[in-house]
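User: Structure with iron/sulfur cluster, C-alpha coordinates only please.
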Amino acid sequence: MIKSLKVLNHNLANADNQLAVLQNELNGQPFFSNKIATFGYTGLQATGIEVFQVNVGKMCNQVCKHCHVDAGPDRKEMMTLETMQLCLVAIQNPTIKTVDLTGGAPELNPNFRWFVQEIKKLGKHVIVRCNLTIILANKKFNDLPEFFKLYEVEVVSSLPSFTPDRTNSQRGDGVFEDSITALKMLNAVGYGVQNSGLILNLVYNPAGAFLPPSQSALQAEYKTELFKNYGISFNNLFSITNMPISRYLDYLLVSGNYLKYMDKLIAAFNPSAIDNVMCRNTISISWDGFLYDCDFNQMLDLKVNPTASQHLSEFNIQLLNTRNIVLKQHCYGCTAGAGSSCGGAVAG
Amino acid sequence: MANHYYNSEDLGKFGNIGEYQKPLADKFFDYYGEVFKTSALTEKEKSLIALAVAHALQCPYCIDAYSADAYEKGYSKQQMMEAVHVAAAIKGGAVLVHGVQMMNKVNEIAM
Ligand code: SF4
Ligand code: SF4
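Assistant:
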Protein backbone atom coordinates (compact mmCIF):
# COMPACT_ATOMS: atom_id res chain seq x y z
CA MET A 1 0.00 0.00 0.00
CA ILE A 2 1.15 3.56 -0.75
CA LYS A 3 2.54 5.41 2.27
CA SER A 4 1.61 8.94 3.25
CA LEU A 5 4.04 11.75 2.47
CA LYS A 6 4.38 12.29 6.20
CA VAL A 7 5.58 8.74 6.86
CA LEU A 8 7.87 8.89 3.83
CA ASN A 9 9.37 12.04 5.35
CA HIS A 10 8.66 13.72 2.05
CA ASN A 11 9.60 17.32 1.49
CA LEU A 12 5.95 18.19 0.73
CA ALA A 13 4.74 16.75 4.04
CA ASN A 14 5.87 20.10 5.38
CA ALA A 15 3.30 22.86 4.80
CA ASP A 16 5.99 25.56 4.44
CA ASN A 17 7.56 23.67 1.57
CA GLN A 18 4.18 23.39 -0.15
CA LEU A 19 3.59 27.10 0.30
CA ALA A 20 7.05 27.84 -1.08
CA VAL A 21 6.13 25.96 -4.29
CA LEU A 22 2.74 27.68 -4.50
CA GLN A 23 3.95 31.19 -3.80
CA ASN A 24 6.56 31.18 -6.53
CA GLU A 25 5.40 33.75 -8.99
CA LEU A 26 6.85 31.60 -11.73
CA ASN A 27 5.70 31.93 -15.26
CA GLY A 28 4.25 35.37 -14.50
CA GLN A 29 1.40 33.83 -12.49
CA PRO A 30 -0.33 36.68 -10.60
CA PHE A 31 -0.92 36.35 -6.86
CA PHE A 32 -4.52 35.44 -6.05
CA SER A 33 -4.97 38.50 -3.86
CA ASN A 34 -3.76 40.77 -6.69
CA LYS A 35 -6.04 39.00 -9.12
CA ILE A 36 -9.17 39.57 -7.06
CA ALA A 37 -8.05 43.16 -6.38
CA THR A 38 -8.48 43.84 -10.10
CA PHE A 39 -12.17 43.04 -9.55
CA GLY A 40 -12.46 45.43 -6.63
CA TYR A 41 -11.82 43.03 -3.74
CA THR A 42 -9.35 44.24 -1.14
CA GLY A 43 -9.08 40.85 0.50
CA LEU A 44 -12.02 38.67 1.39
CA GLN A 45 -14.07 38.74 4.55
CA ALA A 46 -16.16 36.04 6.17
CA THR A 47 -19.91 36.63 6.17
CA GLY A 48 -20.62 34.54 9.28
CA ILE A 49 -20.33 30.90 10.29
CA GLU A 50 -23.06 28.60 9.10
CA VAL A 51 -20.96 25.51 8.46
CA PHE A 52 -18.70 24.05 11.13
CA GLN A 53 -16.40 21.57 9.42
CA VAL A 54 -14.50 19.22 11.68
CA ASN A 55 -11.57 17.10 10.58
CA VAL A 56 -11.78 14.36 13.21
CA GLY A 57 -8.54 12.67 12.17
CA LYS A 58 -6.19 11.94 9.32
CA MET A 59 -6.43 8.17 9.47
CA CYS A 60 -8.07 6.60 6.42
CA ASN A 61 -8.49 3.09 5.05
CA GLN A 62 -7.65 4.47 1.59
CA VAL A 63 -4.59 6.25 0.23
CA CYS A 64 -5.95 8.19 -2.73
CA LYS A 65 -3.32 9.67 -5.00
CA HIS A 66 -4.91 13.12 -5.02
CA CYS A 67 -5.60 13.39 -1.28
CA HIS A 68 -4.98 16.93 -0.01
CA VAL A 69 -5.08 15.65 3.57
CA ASP A 70 -2.26 13.15 2.95
CA ALA A 71 -4.49 10.68 4.78
CA GLY A 72 -3.92 6.94 5.06
CA PRO A 73 -3.79 3.99 7.45
CA ASP A 74 -0.39 5.20 8.66
CA ARG A 75 -1.69 8.58 9.91
CA LYS A 76 -2.27 8.56 13.65
CA GLU A 77 -3.62 12.09 14.24
CA MET A 78 -7.06 11.68 15.82
CA MET A 79 -9.38 14.16 17.53
CA THR A 80 -9.79 13.38 21.24
CA LEU A 81 -13.04 13.32 23.18
CA GLU A 82 -11.96 16.50 25.00
CA THR A 83 -11.52 18.38 21.72
CA MET A 84 -14.90 17.07 20.54
CA GLN A 85 -16.39 18.49 23.72
CA LEU A 86 -14.89 21.88 22.86
CA CYS A 87 -16.47 21.54 19.41
CA LEU A 88 -19.86 20.86 21.01
CA VAL A 89 -19.62 24.08 23.00
CA ALA A 90 -18.75 26.10 19.89
CA ILE A 91 -21.49 24.43 17.82
CA GLN A 92 -24.15 25.73 20.21
CA ASN A 93 -23.90 29.12 18.52
CA PRO A 94 -27.26 29.55 16.81
CA THR A 95 -25.86 30.79 13.49
CA ILE A 96 -24.18 27.40 13.00
CA LYS A 97 -26.65 25.26 11.11
CA THR A 98 -24.51 22.45 9.73
CA VAL A 99 -21.71 20.33 11.11
CA ASP A 100 -19.64 18.74 8.39
CA LEU A 101 -17.51 15.78 9.52
CA THR A 102 -14.49 14.88 7.48
CA GLY A 103 -11.08 13.21 7.78
CA GLY A 104 -9.39 10.84 6.81
CA ALA A 105 -12.27 8.48 7.19
CA PRO A 106 -14.19 10.17 10.02
CA GLU A 107 -15.79 6.87 11.02
CA LEU A 108 -12.37 5.61 12.15
CA ASN A 109 -12.38 7.98 15.09
CA PRO A 110 -13.41 5.80 18.08
CA ASN A 111 -15.76 8.54 19.33
CA PHE A 112 -17.33 9.23 15.94
CA ARG A 113 -20.78 7.83 16.72
CA TRP A 114 -20.96 9.51 20.10
CA PHE A 115 -19.99 12.81 18.46
CA VAL A 116 -22.75 12.51 15.82
CA GLN A 117 -25.32 11.76 18.53
CA GLU A 118 -24.27 14.77 20.59
CA ILE A 119 -24.35 17.10 17.60
CA LYS A 120 -27.84 15.91 16.73
CA LYS A 121 -28.97 16.64 20.29
CA LEU A 122 -28.08 20.26 19.55
CA GLY A 123 -30.46 20.17 16.60
CA LYS A 124 -27.82 20.66 13.93
CA HIS A 125 -27.71 19.18 10.47
CA VAL A 126 -24.86 16.66 10.14
CA ILE A 127 -22.91 15.88 6.98
CA VAL A 128 -20.51 12.95 6.95
CA ARG A 129 -17.92 12.71 4.18
CA CYS A 130 -17.97 8.96 3.88
CA ASN A 131 -15.49 7.36 1.49
CA LEU A 132 -17.91 4.40 0.98
CA THR A 133 -15.28 1.65 1.25
CA ILE A 134 -15.09 2.17 5.02
CA ILE A 135 -18.54 0.56 5.23
CA LEU A 136 -16.98 -2.69 4.01
CA ALA A 137 -13.55 -2.28 5.60
CA ASN A 138 -14.53 -4.09 8.80
CA LYS A 139 -17.63 -5.86 10.07
CA LYS A 140 -18.10 -3.23 12.75
CA PHE A 141 -18.73 -0.61 10.05
CA ASN A 142 -21.30 -2.64 8.09
CA ASP A 143 -24.17 -1.03 9.99
CA LEU A 144 -23.08 2.53 9.16
CA PRO A 145 -25.95 3.01 6.68
CA GLU A 146 -28.46 2.24 9.48
CA PHE A 147 -26.58 4.50 11.87
CA PHE A 148 -26.60 7.36 9.36
CA LYS A 149 -30.30 6.81 8.79
CA LEU A 150 -31.10 6.84 12.50
CA TYR A 151 -29.49 10.27 12.88
CA GLU A 152 -30.62 11.60 9.48
CA VAL A 153 -27.04 12.26 8.50
CA GLU A 154 -26.44 13.64 5.02
CA VAL A 155 -23.90 11.40 3.32
CA VAL A 156 -21.43 12.88 0.84
CA SER A 157 -19.23 10.38 -0.96
CA SER A 158 -16.53 10.53 -3.60
CA LEU A 159 -16.90 8.59 -6.80
CA PRO A 160 -14.64 10.12 -9.46
CA SER A 161 -16.24 8.13 -12.24
CA PHE A 162 -19.11 5.77 -12.99
CA THR A 163 -16.55 3.43 -14.54
CA PRO A 164 -13.96 1.36 -12.65
CA ASP A 165 -10.81 2.51 -14.49
CA ARG A 166 -10.70 6.13 -13.40
CA THR A 167 -11.99 5.47 -9.90
CA ASN A 168 -9.40 2.80 -9.22
CA SER A 169 -6.53 4.73 -10.80
CA GLN A 170 -7.17 7.60 -8.38
CA ARG A 171 -8.45 5.83 -5.27
CA GLY A 172 -6.82 2.39 -5.42
CA ASP A 173 -7.51 -1.06 -6.84
CA GLY A 174 -10.94 -2.45 -6.03
CA VAL A 175 -12.26 0.86 -4.67
CA PHE A 176 -14.83 1.17 -7.44
CA GLU A 177 -16.29 -2.29 -6.84
CA ASP A 178 -16.47 -1.74 -3.07
CA SER A 179 -17.95 1.73 -3.57
CA ILE A 180 -20.72 0.25 -5.72
CA THR A 181 -21.50 -2.34 -3.03
CA ALA A 182 -21.55 0.38 -0.36
CA LEU A 183 -23.83 2.59 -2.48
CA LYS A 184 -26.24 -0.32 -2.86
CA MET A 185 -26.23 -0.75 0.92
CA LEU A 186 -27.00 2.96 1.36
CA ASN A 187 -29.79 2.75 -1.23
CA ALA A 188 -31.18 -0.31 0.54
CA VAL A 189 -31.89 1.69 3.72
CA GLY A 190 -33.37 4.55 1.69
CA TYR A 191 -30.38 6.83 0.99
CA GLY A 192 -30.64 8.60 -2.34
CA VAL A 193 -34.11 7.17 -2.85
CA GLN A 194 -36.77 9.65 -3.93
CA ASN A 195 -38.93 11.07 -1.13
CA SER A 196 -37.06 9.16 1.59
CA GLY A 197 -35.61 12.39 2.97
CA LEU A 198 -32.25 10.63 3.28
CA ILE A 199 -29.67 12.53 1.27
CA LEU A 200 -26.84 10.82 -0.58
CA ASN A 201 -24.68 13.18 -2.61
CA LEU A 202 -21.75 12.10 -4.74
CA VAL A 203 -18.56 13.99 -5.47
CA TYR A 204 -16.73 13.99 -8.76
CA ASN A 205 -13.16 15.18 -8.95
CA PRO A 206 -10.88 14.77 -11.94
CA ALA A 207 -8.57 11.75 -12.05
CA GLY A 208 -5.68 13.69 -13.56
CA ALA A 209 -4.30 17.15 -14.25
CA PHE A 210 -7.45 18.75 -15.58
CA LEU A 211 -10.52 20.67 -14.47
CA PRO A 212 -13.98 19.20 -13.97
CA PRO A 213 -16.49 19.41 -16.82
CA SER A 214 -19.97 20.91 -16.41
CA GLN A 215 -21.59 19.72 -13.17
CA SER A 216 -25.10 19.48 -14.61
CA ALA A 217 -24.09 17.42 -17.66
CA LEU A 218 -22.01 15.13 -15.48
CA GLN A 219 -24.81 14.66 -12.95
CA ALA A 220 -27.24 13.63 -15.67
CA GLU A 221 -24.73 11.13 -17.02
CA TYR A 222 -23.93 9.69 -13.58
CA LYS A 223 -27.62 9.26 -12.83
CA THR A 224 -28.28 7.42 -16.07
CA GLU A 225 -25.18 5.22 -15.98
CA LEU A 226 -25.26 4.27 -12.29
CA PHE A 227 -28.93 3.41 -12.49
CA LYS A 228 -28.65 1.50 -15.78
CA ASN A 229 -25.58 -0.51 -14.79
CA TYR A 230 -26.04 -1.01 -11.05
CA GLY A 231 -29.55 0.16 -10.13
CA ILE A 232 -28.01 2.89 -7.94
CA SER A 233 -29.68 6.23 -7.28
CA PHE A 234 -28.42 9.36 -5.50
CA ASN A 235 -29.43 12.97 -5.00
CA ASN A 236 -26.87 15.44 -6.34
CA LEU A 237 -23.43 15.27 -7.87
CA PHE A 238 -20.92 17.89 -6.76
CA SER A 239 -18.01 18.48 -9.08
CA ILE A 240 -14.92 19.57 -7.21
CA THR A 241 -11.64 20.92 -8.53
CA ASN A 242 -8.48 19.23 -7.24
CA MET A 243 -6.43 21.56 -5.09
CA PRO A 244 -2.67 21.84 -5.65
CA ILE A 245 -1.97 20.67 -2.10
CA SER A 246 -0.15 17.72 -0.57
CA ARG A 247 -0.34 14.48 -2.59
CA TYR A 248 -2.04 16.16 -5.54
CA LEU A 249 0.67 18.83 -5.57
CA ASP A 250 3.25 16.05 -5.51
CA TYR A 251 1.51 14.34 -8.44
CA LEU A 252 1.48 17.61 -10.41
CA LEU A 253 5.17 18.23 -9.79
CA VAL A 254 6.31 14.66 -10.50
CA SER A 255 4.22 14.38 -13.67
CA GLY A 256 5.48 17.76 -14.95
CA ASN A 257 1.96 19.21 -14.92
CA TYR A 258 2.28 21.74 -12.11
CA LEU A 259 2.77 24.97 -14.07
CA LYS A 260 0.31 23.99 -16.76
CA TYR A 261 -2.29 23.13 -14.10
CA MET A 262 -1.82 26.45 -12.32
CA ASP A 263 -2.09 28.21 -15.69
CA LYS A 264 -5.35 26.33 -16.31
CA LEU A 265 -6.77 27.37 -12.94
CA ILE A 266 -5.80 30.98 -13.56
CA ALA A 267 -7.05 31.01 -17.15
CA ALA A 268 -10.38 29.67 -15.89
CA PHE A 269 -10.60 32.35 -13.16
CA ASN A 270 -14.24 33.31 -12.78
CA PRO A 271 -14.85 36.51 -10.80
CA SER A 272 -18.48 35.55 -10.15
CA ALA A 273 -17.26 32.63 -8.01
CA ILE A 274 -15.44 34.92 -5.54
CA ASP A 275 -18.45 35.87 -3.45
CA ASN A 276 -19.43 32.24 -2.94
CA VAL A 277 -16.16 30.58 -1.98
CA MET A 278 -16.92 28.30 0.96
CA CYS A 279 -14.56 29.94 3.49
CA ARG A 280 -16.94 32.88 3.72
CA ASN A 281 -19.54 30.93 5.71
CA THR A 282 -17.42 28.08 7.04
CA ILE A 283 -14.95 27.43 9.80
CA SER A 284 -12.68 24.41 9.63
CA ILE A 285 -11.39 22.66 12.76
CA SER A 286 -8.33 20.43 12.85
CA TRP A 287 -8.01 17.22 14.87
CA ASP A 288 -6.12 19.18 17.53
CA GLY A 289 -8.67 21.98 17.78
CA PHE A 290 -7.09 24.78 15.71
CA LEU A 291 -9.25 26.99 13.51
CA TYR A 292 -8.85 27.50 9.76
CA ASP A 293 -10.77 29.23 6.99
CA CYS A 294 -11.21 25.95 5.12
CA ASP A 295 -9.93 22.38 4.97
CA PHE A 296 -7.36 23.41 2.34
CA ASN A 297 -5.87 26.14 4.50
CA GLN A 298 -5.83 23.61 7.32
CA MET A 299 -3.62 21.26 5.32
CA LEU A 300 -1.31 24.16 4.49
CA ASP A 301 -1.24 25.03 8.19
CA LEU A 302 -2.63 28.50 7.51
CA LYS A 303 -4.56 29.23 10.70
CA VAL A 304 -7.28 31.88 10.70
CA ASN A 305 -6.24 35.49 10.95
CA PRO A 306 -4.54 35.96 14.36
CA THR A 307 -6.89 38.83 15.26
CA ALA A 308 -9.70 36.24 15.39
CA SER A 309 -9.39 33.35 17.87
CA GLN A 310 -7.15 30.56 16.58
CA HIS A 311 -8.11 27.61 18.80
CA LEU A 312 -11.38 26.07 20.03
CA SER A 313 -10.36 26.85 23.61
CA GLU A 314 -10.73 30.56 22.79
CA PHE A 315 -13.49 30.27 20.14
CA ASN A 316 -14.97 33.73 19.63
CA ILE A 317 -17.72 33.72 17.06
CA GLN A 318 -18.00 37.51 16.92
CA LEU A 319 -14.38 37.87 15.88
CA LEU A 320 -14.54 34.89 13.55
CA ASN A 321 -17.73 36.02 11.83
CA THR A 322 -16.04 38.97 10.19
CA ARG A 323 -12.45 37.74 9.99
CA ASN A 324 -10.29 38.44 6.98
CA ILE A 325 -9.64 35.21 5.13
CA VAL A 326 -6.08 34.00 4.54
CA LEU A 327 -5.63 33.73 0.77
CA LYS A 328 -2.81 32.07 -1.16
CA GLN A 329 -2.27 30.69 -4.67
CA HIS A 330 -4.26 27.49 -4.07
CA CYS A 331 -7.37 29.69 -3.78
CA TYR A 332 -7.41 29.76 -7.60
CA GLY A 333 -8.81 26.23 -7.27
CA CYS A 334 -11.99 27.67 -5.74
CA THR A 335 -12.60 30.24 -8.48
CA ALA A 336 -11.77 28.25 -11.62
CA GLY A 337 -14.60 27.76 -14.11
CA ALA A 338 -17.89 27.34 -12.29
CA GLY A 339 -15.98 27.54 -9.00
CA SER A 340 -15.56 24.75 -6.50
CA SER A 341 -16.39 24.09 -2.88
CA CYS A 342 -17.20 21.09 -0.71
CA GLY A 343 -20.71 21.52 -2.09
CA GLY A 344 -19.53 21.51 -5.71
CA ALA A 345 -19.75 24.32 -8.27
CA VAL A 346 -20.57 27.74 -6.81
CA ALA A 347 -21.30 29.82 -9.91
CA GLY A 348 -23.54 29.24 -12.89
CA MET B 1 14.89 26.53 -28.09
CA ALA B 2 14.52 24.26 -31.07
CA ASN B 3 12.61 25.78 -33.92
CA HIS B 4 9.70 23.69 -35.18
CA TYR B 5 7.00 24.35 -37.71
CA TYR B 6 4.58 23.20 -34.99
CA ASN B 7 4.99 24.59 -31.45
CA SER B 8 2.57 23.49 -28.74
CA GLU B 9 2.49 27.04 -27.29
CA ASP B 10 1.05 28.25 -30.59
CA LEU B 11 -2.23 26.53 -29.80
CA GLY B 12 -2.78 29.08 -27.03
CA LYS B 13 -2.16 31.84 -29.56
CA PHE B 14 -4.93 30.71 -31.90
CA GLY B 15 -7.00 33.75 -30.97
CA ASN B 16 -4.22 36.01 -32.23
CA ILE B 17 -5.24 35.37 -35.84
CA GLY B 18 -7.67 38.24 -35.22
CA GLU B 19 -4.74 40.67 -35.10
CA TYR B 20 -4.44 40.57 -38.88
CA GLN B 21 -8.13 40.23 -39.77
CA LYS B 22 -10.49 40.78 -36.87
CA PRO B 23 -13.99 40.66 -38.43
CA LEU B 24 -13.39 37.29 -40.06
CA ALA B 25 -11.70 35.87 -36.96
CA ASP B 26 -14.61 37.04 -34.80
CA LYS B 27 -17.08 35.39 -37.14
CA PHE B 28 -15.08 32.17 -37.13
CA PHE B 29 -14.73 32.00 -33.32
CA ASP B 30 -18.39 32.85 -32.78
CA TYR B 31 -19.33 30.09 -35.17
CA TYR B 32 -16.87 27.67 -33.57
CA GLY B 33 -18.24 28.40 -30.11
CA GLU B 34 -21.80 27.94 -31.31
CA VAL B 35 -21.00 24.64 -33.07
CA PHE B 36 -19.63 23.07 -29.89
CA LYS B 37 -22.57 23.98 -27.64
CA THR B 38 -24.96 21.25 -26.59
CA SER B 39 -27.89 21.14 -28.99
CA ALA B 40 -29.12 18.04 -30.82
CA LEU B 41 -25.73 16.54 -29.90
CA THR B 42 -24.15 17.07 -26.49
CA GLU B 43 -20.89 18.96 -25.96
CA LYS B 44 -19.41 15.63 -24.96
CA GLU B 45 -20.45 13.86 -28.17
CA LYS B 46 -19.14 16.75 -30.24
CA SER B 47 -15.81 16.51 -28.49
CA LEU B 48 -15.38 12.89 -29.56
CA ILE B 49 -16.31 13.72 -33.15
CA ALA B 50 -13.73 16.53 -33.06
CA LEU B 51 -11.13 14.08 -31.79
CA ALA B 52 -11.76 11.69 -34.68
CA VAL B 53 -11.73 14.49 -37.25
CA ALA B 54 -8.53 15.91 -35.74
CA HIS B 55 -6.86 12.57 -36.34
CA ALA B 56 -8.19 12.29 -39.87
CA LEU B 57 -6.77 15.77 -40.56
CA GLN B 58 -3.65 14.95 -38.54
CA CYS B 59 -3.71 18.42 -37.03
CA PRO B 60 -1.40 18.32 -33.99
CA TYR B 61 -3.08 21.32 -32.38
CA CYS B 62 -6.53 19.78 -32.64
CA ILE B 63 -5.27 16.38 -31.45
CA ASP B 64 -3.70 18.06 -28.42
CA ALA B 65 -6.84 20.05 -27.66
CA TYR B 66 -9.42 17.32 -28.20
CA SER B 67 -7.46 14.50 -26.57
CA ALA B 68 -7.50 16.59 -23.40
CA ASP B 69 -11.08 17.75 -23.91
CA ALA B 70 -12.54 14.30 -24.63
CA TYR B 71 -10.71 12.76 -21.67
CA GLU B 72 -11.79 15.60 -19.38
CA LYS B 73 -15.36 15.14 -20.49
CA GLY B 74 -15.18 11.53 -19.35
CA TYR B 75 -14.46 9.34 -22.35
CA SER B 76 -12.35 6.30 -21.52
CA LYS B 77 -9.03 5.59 -23.21
CA GLN B 78 -10.67 2.70 -25.06
CA GLN B 79 -13.53 4.85 -26.33
CA MET B 80 -11.08 7.47 -27.55
CA MET B 81 -8.97 4.89 -29.36
CA GLU B 82 -12.09 3.46 -30.98
CA ALA B 83 -12.90 6.95 -32.25
CA VAL B 84 -9.41 7.14 -33.80
CA HIS B 85 -10.05 3.75 -35.42
CA VAL B 86 -13.26 5.11 -36.90
CA ALA B 87 -11.23 7.95 -38.42
CA ALA B 88 -8.64 5.44 -39.70
CA ALA B 89 -11.31 3.16 -41.15
CA ILE B 90 -12.99 6.02 -42.98
CA LYS B 91 -9.65 7.32 -44.23
CA GLY B 92 -8.53 3.83 -45.29
CA GLY B 93 -11.92 3.14 -46.82
CA ALA B 94 -11.77 6.42 -48.70
CA VAL B 95 -8.50 5.35 -50.28
CA LEU B 96 -9.70 1.83 -51.07
CA VAL B 97 -13.06 2.80 -52.49
CA HIS B 98 -11.12 4.77 -55.11
CA GLY B 99 -9.78 1.39 -56.13
CA VAL B 100 -13.10 0.99 -57.92
CA GLN B 101 -12.33 4.12 -59.92
CA MET B 102 -8.94 2.64 -60.75
CA MET B 103 -10.62 -0.60 -61.84
CA ASN B 104 -13.12 1.32 -63.97
CA LYS B 105 -10.31 3.11 -65.76
CA VAL B 106 -8.25 -0.02 -66.26
CA ASN B 107 -11.26 -1.95 -67.52
CA GLU B 108 -11.97 0.89 -69.92
CA ILE B 109 -8.59 0.74 -71.54
CA ALA B 110 -7.55 -2.87 -71.13
CA MET B 111 -8.10 -5.43 -73.92
S1 SF4 C 1 -9.24 11.44 -0.44
FE1 SF4 C 1 -10.59 10.81 1.24
S2 SF4 C 1 -10.76 8.59 1.03
FE2 SF4 C 1 -8.98 9.23 -0.16
S3 SF4 C 1 -7.22 9.04 1.23
FE3 SF4 C 1 -7.94 11.15 1.37
S4 SF4 C 1 -9.35 11.15 3.09
FE4 SF4 C 1 -9.09 9.00 2.47
S1 SF4 D 1 -8.87 27.72 -0.68
FE1 SF4 D 1 -9.99 28.11 1.20
S2 SF4 D 1 -9.44 30.20 1.74
FE2 SF4 D 1 -8.94 29.94 -0.42
S3 SF4 D 1 -10.77 30.64 -1.49
FE3 SF4 D 1 -10.92 28.42 -1.24
S4 SF4 D 1 -12.13 28.15 0.59
FE4 SF4 D 1 -11.36 30.27 0.62
